[in-house]
Amino acid sequence: MIMNTLFNNNEDMEITPIGKGFGLKKINSNKFILYRQGVPDKELVFYTKLDKQIITVDLVLKHGVIKHRLAEIVGVTRKTIDVWVDTYHQGGNAALVNSSKKGSGRREKQNITRPDGNKFKEYAARKKLASILKEYLPDERDLLPVLDATTKCKGQVKSTENRLIVRLEPLERHQFRNAQEQLCRHLNQMNVKLHNDKTLAFDVGK
User: What domain range includes position 97?
Assistant: First the structure.
């Protein structure tokens, strides 16, 4: 009854109650607005399947939302959410990172090993890069393709007395190349030091 009174006007018709005073409004298949007590709380974006797993598990365990309602709106089954929650209990978010590499079925769940942290660090680094690129790409559909193209593109490495310079092959579209260049500038401002005390620098070729 309480949920019905929280989400009962025309503006909120697209908000799906998921329990405990929370609701989700679907913007597209990868973006949702989380409502708390009828008020917009935060934006949820699934850049990857792993994002969906981590955010879904957090909503279940931290906020106690109703699994079958959440499953319906995010496009999975309740059984799948149960698998993700069980996996999380085995080793936290890092266990979800491992399982996403192997698959999300229950048969795979038994084979999850305790992570050494490298995969989770890789995921966190990728997410950080995506958040930087987002500032320079108005269409979020371009985000993952540009990120993949940038991190997998060919390039050259040049070593100087004080720096190790990685020169990336430029992307073809001007808008994407600009985002690639901005990402490099942002990374260079971090002044990353290597074990030999050289500064790691990034550049985009001409």
Answer: 2-109
